[in-house]
């Protein structure tokens, strides 16, 4: 199991990303628009920089839903390789069978 504080920090980041998503998208659209005057684009970039860093989507870490492990994460299943193997061995995941030959 991962540290509870690390998992909660990541959950807090997810909430902040959701909270600031519209504001960040609006400011980024202004910055990328070549038709907007340079002063306004610069002002928008400063406003974007003043937003909390944890509101950026790239700061979110993919973590296992079962254990909170940050590495060996399968996006499709939202769990780590170790949790997948354990649950698959116990027969808790439909269609997954531990191979042997």
Automatic annotation (TrEMBL):
Gene3D superfamilies: 1.10.287.1480. One of its GO terms (cellular component) is cytoplasm. It comes from Bartonella choladocola. The gene is rpsN. Keywords: Ribonucleoprotein, Ribosomal protein, RNA-binding, rRNA-binding. Belongs to the universal ribosomal protein uS14 family. Part of the 30S ribosomal subunit. Contacts proteins S3 and S10. One of its GO terms (molecular function) is structural constituent of ribosome. It holds the Pfam family Ribosomal_S14. NCBIfam families: PRK08881.1. Binds 16S rRNA, required for the assembly of 30S particles and may also be responsible for determining the conformation of the 16S rRNA at the A site. This is Small ribosomal subunit protein uS14. One of its GO terms (biological process) is translation.
């Amino acid at each position: 199991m991962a540290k509870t504080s690390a998992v909660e920090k990541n959950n807090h980041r997810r909430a902040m990303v959701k909270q600031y998503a519209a504001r960040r998208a609006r400011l980024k659209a202004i910055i990328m628009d070549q038709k907007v005057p340079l002063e306004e684009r610069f002002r928008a970039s400063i406003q974007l920089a003043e937003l909390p860093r944890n509101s950026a989507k790239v700061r979110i870490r993919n973590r296992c839903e079962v254990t909170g492990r940050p590495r060996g994460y399968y996006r499709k299943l939202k769990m780590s390789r170790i949790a997948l193997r354990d649950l698959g061995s116990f027969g808790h995941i439909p269609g997954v069978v531990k191979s042997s030959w």
